[in-house]
Every structure is written in C-alpha cells, then in structure tokens.
Specification:
A hairpin with a 5-residue loop joins strand 4 and strand 5. The protein has one domain. It contains five helices and 15 strands. It is α+β, with helices and mostly antiparallel strands and 267 residues long. The strands form four sheets. The protein has a five-stranded antiparallel sheet with strand order 2-3-14-9-11, with no helix packed on it.
C-alpha cells in the first residue's frame, strides 16, 4: 500500500471537512447508546472502539501508518458477545432440523434463557431453503439528533481461527429517525458444523454514515429518558403490522421530538 496515497486522501478529507464547515455541517456527531433489556442487562457490555495490537511499524510504508487504513479502522465500534454458547442442528428421522444447545447440561445457559434470547425463523422466511436463519436479540439502541445512519456488519477486521458456519445478516437504518433495538441475524450455510459464540469476543461491528463524510462520531452512553421511551414505543414492532417499514420514516420524523440525545451522567 502506498502511504503517499493515504496522505493525499487525508488532505482531501481536510478539504472536505473545511467545505462542510462552510455549509454548516458538523465535524463531530454525538450518538447515544443504551441497552433496552428487561432482564440480565449486565451481560450487555458497552460498545468498544476498534483498535489493533500490532507491533511498532519498522517502515514508513507500513500499513499501520497508512492514514486511509487507520481512518477506516477507527470508524468501527465492537459490540462484544454477551454469552458462551455452542449451537448445532440435529436432523430428526422425518428430515426436520432441530436447533439444540450442543453443550447440553454443561451449558452456561438455561433453556428458558435461550428461548427468550433466540428464535429460529420458520423456513418460509429463509432466503434459501437450505440455509436456516436464526435471530438473537441484541437490545442495543443508538440515537442521534443529527442525520446519521447506523451500519451493522460482521466482525470482518478480526481473524477467527474457526470461521462461523454461515453469514451474519447486515443492516443499515437512520439512527436519528428509527432508534430501535438491534438484533443479530445469522444465515447458517453449513448445518453440519456448530456455531460457537464466546463471551467477550467480537460479535458484530457498528459504524456510522453522516452528512459530512469527514465527520467523526462521539459515542456516549444514553439516558433512557421518557421522551426517548415514548418515541421508541411508537416505532417498535411495526413490522408485525405492515411491510416496507422504510415508508414510515417520514411520519416518524414528523412525530419525533427535536432533541432525544441525553448523555448519561456518571454516578
């Protein structure tokens, strides 16, 4: 990688930022995060800025000092996995697949907890009849007062010696209009292999898209105010009643209070 190309990008970014300032677009966007969980809220750790533990670069051309690579990395936040869990499929005599906890009695989760946390979608909702789709609750809520889209992706900047046997479902929606709890969707490609999740390991990433491409996001713990709770109630679970929920954005924005972000006071 040519480091000089990275510096050219850096200077271009600074020019974009100055131009954005002239247009009144912010260079720093504050996004609040909180966990909306009725039970066991302590298992959901705070999102963490992505960082690397690489050796000190020995060359000025090293990737570690490429501004483009550094800027890409620092825009990601890690959401850690909340539980230790190994899942697998068992095929019944009639050919039907059953999802089970592979750790059995040694599992750290009770079956009641697993049922509350995860669902196996019915086959008619799968993208492919050979690829089961599971969904795990991830009750993180992100909210912004400035135009800002949240993007949820697999943890592709981390190396896993044993790859997961499928693909995580990605997602993108406006955090300033649609502050709803996330979920973790997984499309299981190889049902002969288990899915191993370990508490504390990267579960998924989030990053943000803003009006000013050069803007950086300041992530703060959000207070669950009555205004935010009331607004969330108006948009939660609307997919149970209508299709194409994106068509509701304009109506939701009309109902939205002007200010929702309120950083939580420590102590």
């Amino acid at each position: 990688m040519d480091a000089s190309a990275g510096w050219e990008g850096y200077f271009a970014e600074e020019q974009d930022a100055r131009a954005a300032d002239e247009r009144g677009k912010k260079r720093t966007i504050t996004v609040g995060w909180t966990v909306r969980a009725q039970k066991a809220s302590v298992i959901w750790a705070a999102p963490q800025p992505f960082s690397r533990n690489d050796p000190k670069p020995v060359s000025s051309k090293s990737v570690q000092v490429c501004p483009a690579a550094v800027d890409f990395d620092r825009r990601h936040f890690i959401v850690p996995c909340p539980v230790d869990l190994t899942l697998k499929f068992e095929r019944q005599p009639n050919g039907q697949l059953t999802l089970v906890d592979a750790d059995g009695e040694k599992s750290g989760m009770r079956q009641t907890g697993l049922r509350e946390m995860m669902i196996l979608h019915p086959q008619h909702e799968w993208r492919n009849p050979e690829r089961p789709l599971i969904q795990v609750i991830a009750p993180y809520v992100f909210v912004a007062d400035d135009p800002c889209y949240i993007v949820q992706t697999p943890p592709y900047l981390h190396y896993f010696p044993t790859p997961r046997p499928g693909l995580q479902m990605g997602g993108r929606f406006p955090a300033h209009i649609w502050p709803r709890p996330l979920s973790w969707g997984f499309e299981w490609y190889d049902v002969t292999k288990p899915l191993v999740l370990k508490r504390g390991e990267p579960w998924f990433y989030i990053h943000f898209e803003t009006e000013n491409p050069s803007a950086h996001v300041r992530l703060v713990e959000q207070e669950m105010t009555p205004e935010l709770e009331k607004y969330m109630q108006s948009i939660l679970d609307v997919s149970n009643y209508v299709n194409k929920t994106y068509s509701l954005f304009s109506e939701a924005q009309r109902m939205r209070p002007q200010t929702l972000v309120k950083p939580k006071k420590n102590g």
